[in-house]
Amino acid sequence: MKKYTFRGGIHPPEHKELTEHKPIVKLDAPKMVILPLRQHIGATLEPLVKVGEHVYMGQKIADSDQFVSAPVHSSVSGKVMKIEEYFHPSGMKAPAIFIENDGKDELDPSVKPIGDYRKLSPPDIAKAARQAGLVGMGGAGFPTHIKLMPPKDKKVEYLIINGAECEPYLTSDHRVMLEEGEEVLYGLKVMMHNFGVDKAYLAIEENKMDAAEHMQKLLNGDNSIEVCVLKTKYPQGSEKHLIKAVSGREVPSGKLPIDAGAVVNNIDTCTALARVMKTGMPLIRRIVTVSGLGVKKPCNFEVRIGTDFQTLFDAAGGLKEDVKKVIMGGPMMGIAQYDLRTPVVKGTSGLLALLENEVIWEKEMPCTRCAKCVDGCPMGLMPLYLSAYSKKEDYDMMIKYHITDCIECGSCSYVCPSRKNPLQRIRIGKQLTMQRLREQKK
Ligand code: SF4
Ligand code: SF4
Predict the structure, then answer these.
(1) Is 371 near ligand 1, meaning CB less than 6 Å away?
(2) Is 38 touching ligand 1 by the criterion CB < 6 Å?
(3) CB-based contacts of 278: which residues, under 8 Å, 6+ apart?
(4) Secondary structure of residue 228 in the 3-state scheme
(5) N or C: which end of the chain has fewer CB within 10 A?
(6) What topology is assigned to 28-111+282-358 in CATH?
(7) Do the beta carbons of residue 416 and residue 373 sit within 8 Å?
């Protein structure tokens, strides 16, 4: 098999061995699910239910009329107890609907199979994906129906499914490929029909050769889907690097994958789409890797969205006493968590509890201009300069040095021997620059 890759990038310790061989364990729904009204990139939702109301599993409970949005559905049947601000994985508080689980899992009557996707038009498929609240499951949470509707003047030539899972520790996509591979392929076929393409690519890092071989076997000679083995390197799973590795094409600066003729979707987004077509079930569950040396029994769980983090850690045998940091997502791009009452959202791919030796605590030293951050930057940027210009709020230089191309992968901070953490300043500078550019456009 040909191995695909890109320039730059880093090789952090993988720690996948903690969970890669652990089959997915289905957890019972908790007594209370907490469903935030912000679970995707786009508009915050409005509740469609009132306190005291009975809801069914799979019932739409919040939505928005904004284009960039996806509804949220109840992951259990039960009673709406309250709607109020609550802990959110972003670190800020966000409004959430609290539903007391009656333990009956009574299905909403609206949950019905969509049927044979081959008889559906692309707008019908996109409509079904939106109705089901599908968003990218890799963490970013971009509404799937928008990806399924590329602008009419753009042609999809590369439909790529992202099985890279390049973040250390995370193995949920790996396990989904091994355990739900048929559903991955079914969802991918739905997407191929939607885009009218007769070829698609399933990109998997070479540290998951068992998954690559398994998927190849399931294809059973079907050449319309090519399994691409990628060299193991971070951030191979970033959309731009995946497209570059598989197609050789670059996404132009400031543009979207579709501008390079590509669409990238996540592994579990495929299974979610397959489920919508076969059963009509909206997005109410997800697979979460619970790992890190601070977890007694690291594992992969299938959980209802809205389950609190503490329940997941308890199911993984509990936390060790000397945990120093809890992260939602991977250690490179994940978000540090401050309260274990926070609920799992659609984008929760992993929960990590890290010990002191897994966390960098060293004091920041002056920059030695060693340029290791430049060598490691997969976007070909100059992190040391961007960080300095951000500190000085020098917008002209930040624009000149393409700060908006930063994908916030954290490679520069990881390799810096002076522990400068350039990403911290770059992230702030990028946000301010984007805001300024938006204002200039008005
Ligand atoms: S890696 Fe760190 S010390 Fe080296 S040039 Fe970049 S910011 Fe400076
Ligand atoms: S500058 Fe941005 S893209 Fe480059 S290594 Fe740092 S975080 Fe990644």
Answers:
(1) yes
(2) no
(3) 113, 114, 186
(4) strand
(5) C
(6) Ubiquitin-like (UB roll) (3.10.20)
(7) yes
Q: Is 332 in the pocket of ligand 2 (CB under 6 A)?
A: no
Q: In terms of Cα–Cα distance, which of 130, 201, 126, 189 is closest to 163?
A: 201
Task: Name 343's bridge partners.
Answer: 308
Amino acid at 34: I
Unique residue bearing structure tokens 């284009």: 67
Nearest of 57, 49, 111, 101 to residue 78 by alpha carbon: 101
Going from N- to C-terminal start, the domains of the chain cover 28-111+282-358, 132-279, 372-441
Question: Does ligand 1 have an atom closer than 6 angstroms to the CB of 372?
Answer: yes
What residue owns the CA closest to ligand 1's atom 1?
A: 416
CA 138-307-107 angle, 5° bins: 95
- pLDDT 10s digits, 82-110: 999 999 998 889 999 999 999 999 999 99
Q: Is the pLDDT of residue 184 over 60?
A: yes
pTM score above 0.90: yes
Rounded to an integer, what distance in angstroms lies between the CA atom of residue 433 and that of residue 264?
26
Tell me yes or no: is domain 132-279 CATH 1.10.3370.10.
no
Whether 27 and 311 have beta carbons less than 8 Å apart is answered as: yes
Residue 64 has what pLDDT?
A: 94
The DSSP result for 370-415, as a single string, is: --HHHHH-TT---HHHHHHHHHTT-HHHHHHTTGGG-----HHHHH
The letter for the amino acid at 334 is: G
